């Protein structure tokens, strides 16, 4: 690998820009495909270039057979995102866990007593109202959303944006009773059964979690199952 | 959804460390899992970087073949040639560097120039 290639990959990652690296595994020749731009010593055109672009679009690294040879395509996508609503005790456990698992984490809580740097060192914490903050963050299909306050004033506006976004995982903390009431409120507010049905509630896998760390673990486990399209419960 | 998302954090760490070693004037090789069969412990795209001071970051298995991959990486730093290597239970070297889990992986090793 040329040093410029490595630098380009790292630069794309810093800018959160998707990128594919194609390697001809016999010769070691490489090409970077970054949107419309292709650079590197590996000549890629026609079907081979299309195949690399398809792998990038589908976020699928692997070997492909092309007329340009046997190519390994490595897709570098920006990190997954997790938006956590509620700068509560469970969030203090979930933030580092999700970070280790590779998520770019943002915490939203308009209550400034909770949303302090001291409680969330090094984490992006927004104190806007959740609907504004969520709209600004524009959740995409690589985003997970977890509400933790079980305060309808804070959770509901976030969920209202979440269920109409392509987020791959939406979860709301709260007991079954709390969740049943939440479902009622959202239905009254005009959300469809399909939209409300996207919310995993109560949040997390049933692993008997009690402490904040255990609850964070159960939520991250359920989120992982959703990411990989596995029915975990 | 995508299978390699969870690797993003790893990529960054391994590649950034590889770049730092290069900047410090060290020889560096990068190993990447390019194909897997059966129950291999690390998915396609997993990476390991090795420096000529025998430092290592990342992984391409659950620790089963890292030793062998590091040695091949050091050879790549020497001769500049890329290598495509198979590891698995059906390998001749299975006793020494096979995957205890019964899986098979193909690892691509290249020097960072």
CATH top level of the largest domain in chain A?
Alpha Beta
Number of domains of chain B: 1
Mean pLDDT of chain B: 82
Structural class based on helices, strands and sheet pairing of chain B? alpha+beta
**Count of alpha and pi helical runs of chain B:** 3
Structural class of chain A: alpha/beta
Radius of gyration of chain A: 21 Å
Most extensive chain interface and residues per partner: A-B, 39 and 32 residues
Question: How would you classify the quaternary structure?
Answer: heterodimer
* Helical coverage of chain B, percent range: 25-40%
How many β strands of chain B by DSSP?
5
Strand content of chain A: 15-25%
Instruction: Give the full name of the CATH homologous superfamily of the largest domain in chain A.
Output: NAD(P)-binding Rossmann-like Domain
Topology-level CATH name of the largest domain in chain A: Rossmann fold
Commentary on this structure:
The complex is a heterodimer of chains A (233) and B (113). Chain A is of the alpha/beta class. Helices cover 38% and strands 23% of the residues of chain A. Chain A folds into two domains: 74 residues, no CATH class; 148 residues, Rossmann fold, CATH 3.40.50.720. Chain A contains eight helices and eleven strands. The longest helix of chain A has 16 residues. Chain B has a five-stranded antiparallel beta sheet, with helices on both faces. The chains are: A alpha/beta (233), B alpha+beta (113). The interface between A and B is large, with 39 and 32 residues.
In short:
Helices cover 38% and strands 23% of the residues of chain A.
For this entry, give a set of tags.
heterodimer, A: 233 residues, alpha/beta, Rossmann fold, 2 domains, six-stranded parallel sheet, five-stranded antiparallel sheet, 8 helices, 11 strands, 38% helix, elongated, B: 113 residues, alpha+beta, 3 helices, globular
């Amino acid at each position: 690998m040329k040093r410029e290639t490595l630098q380009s990959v790292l630069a794309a990652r810093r800018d959160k820009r998707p990128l594919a690296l194609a390697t001809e595994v016999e010769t070691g020749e490489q090409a970077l495909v970054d949107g419309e731009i292709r650079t590197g010593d590996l000549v890629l055109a026609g079907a081979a270039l299309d195949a690399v672009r398809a792998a990038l679009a589908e976020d699928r690294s692997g070997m492909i057979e092309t007329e340009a040879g046997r190519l390994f395509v490595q897709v570098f996508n920006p990190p997954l995102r997790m938006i956590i609503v509620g700068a509560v005790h469970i969030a203090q456990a979930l933030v580092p866990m999700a970070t280790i698992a590779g998520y770019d984490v943002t915490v939203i809580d308009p209550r400034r007593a909770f949303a302090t740097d001291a409680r969330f060192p090094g984490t992006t914490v927004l104190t806007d109202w959740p609907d504004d903050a969520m709209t600004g963050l524009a959740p995409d299909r690589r985003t997970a959303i977890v509400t933790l306050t079980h305060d309808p004033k804070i959770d509901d506006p976030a969920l209202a944006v979440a269920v109409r976004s392509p987020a791959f995982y939406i979860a709301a903390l709260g007991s079954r009773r709390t969740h049943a009431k939440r479902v009622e409120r959202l239905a009254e507010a005009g959300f469809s059964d399909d939209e409300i049905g996207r919310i995993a509630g109560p949040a997390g896998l049933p692993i008997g979690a009690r402490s904040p760390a255990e609850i964070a673990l159960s939520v991250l486990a359920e989120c992982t199952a959703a990411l990989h399209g596995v029915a975990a419960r | 959804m995508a299978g390699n998302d969870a690797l993003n954090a790893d990529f960054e760490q391994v590649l950034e460390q590889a770049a730092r070693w290069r900047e410090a004037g060290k020889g560096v090789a990068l190993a990447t899992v390019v194909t897997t069969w059966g129950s291999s412990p690390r998915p396609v795209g997993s990476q390991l970087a090795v420096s000529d001071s025998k430092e290592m970051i990342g992984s391409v298995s659950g620790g089963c073949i890292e030793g062998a991959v590091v040695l091949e990486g050091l050879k790549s730093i020497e001769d500049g040639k890329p290598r495509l290597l198979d590891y698995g239970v059906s390998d001749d070297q299975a006793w020494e560097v096979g995957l205890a889990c019964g899986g098979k992986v193909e690892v691509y090793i290249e020097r960072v120039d």
